[in-house]
Amino acid sequence: MRVVIAPDSFKESLSATGVAAAIADGVRDAAPRADIVCVPMADGGEGSLDAVLAATGGERRELKVRNANGEPTQASWAWLGQGKAFIEMASAAGLEQISPAERKPLHAGTYGVGQLISNALDGGARHIVIGLGGSATNDAGAGLLQALGVRLLDAEGNELPPGGAALASLDRLCLRHVDPRLQEAVFELAVDVDNPLCGRRGASAIFGPQKGASPQDVAVLDAAIARFADVCAHQFGRDERDTPGMGAAGGLGFAVKACFTASFRPGVELVAELSGLEAALKGAELVFTGEGRMDAQTLLGKTPAGVARYAKKENIPVFALAGSLGDGYERLYQAGITAAFSIAPGPVTLDDACRNAGPFLRQRAGDCMRAWLAGRAGRPDQASH
Hints:
It contains 13 helices and 13 strands. The protein has helices at residues 16-30, 48-56, 89-93, 111-122, 142-147, 203-207, 215-236, 252-259, 267-275, 277-281, 303-313, 350-355, 357-377, and strands at residues 2-5, 35-38, 59-66, 72-81, 84-88, 127-131, 151-153, 172-174, 186-191, 262-266, 284-294, 318-325, 339-342.
């Protein structure tokens, strides 16, 4: 009996690999002879790099870069071989790296992400996958471009400072010193949202507040990145601002798509491809997935919904485990999830839930497995099969 375990991470608690291991322990408690295949998953945001490395056996590369506030930080990317690299933008410019008191939404930048791309090019990568999500930035990828040799100039020819707000003064892009290797590079951008760059559903309005932006900051940033989009449309002859997904990661994908050869793909789809999820599901009888919180938003490109879609093609039942279940989680049943459960044994504080996520996952996975085996075989003594 094959059981596939394909969860996302539980933020601030366990990596996807840790979640999968805890669920696997619970499955073994109930079915010691089960053939367990762990496929750590992600949707392109935080934890995607670790999930890809765990699934592919890729090589982690380290580099000191600038974080969102321009301060030194140690970041990572994955060399996957055959000219392919995976970059998690949150590794360089992630929100979790910056304390709430130190967040600077008007001035935060993506220069460090560009440094990772440059390092990947140095390593021989020409096919670069970038996971978009978990950013502390709202500069539409302007800093990334600057790290790769693009000069962002105002009307007097002065270089713009970091951050999205500065884009209000943008007059033109100077491409004279752009890294020539980018002409050979192809980018895939992993996203889990379909928001456009600007407007009421754009990067600034929807995601700016969680990065510390006030209503006034949101208005400034939205107007500034709209100016950036105007300049790019004039310079490159195409306007990408309304392409679904442009609002992800503070608009970082916009700069890549506007200036280079790039395409957007659902993050779960990309990670599933890299990790071999479809192959793992062949012959499986049961799937476990999960994430820290599941609600109606999980349907919008999050890992459990994505895993359920793949399992549904093979007609495999899916148990989903979460730290908590929010409003509308029942809609996941329409996406292919058989049953969803909170792992908390009762009322617990958030700190307790995070600290004990491993044991809670193990217990709930064991409970699910016993119930499934009883229904499958008609009696619980088949648990060893």
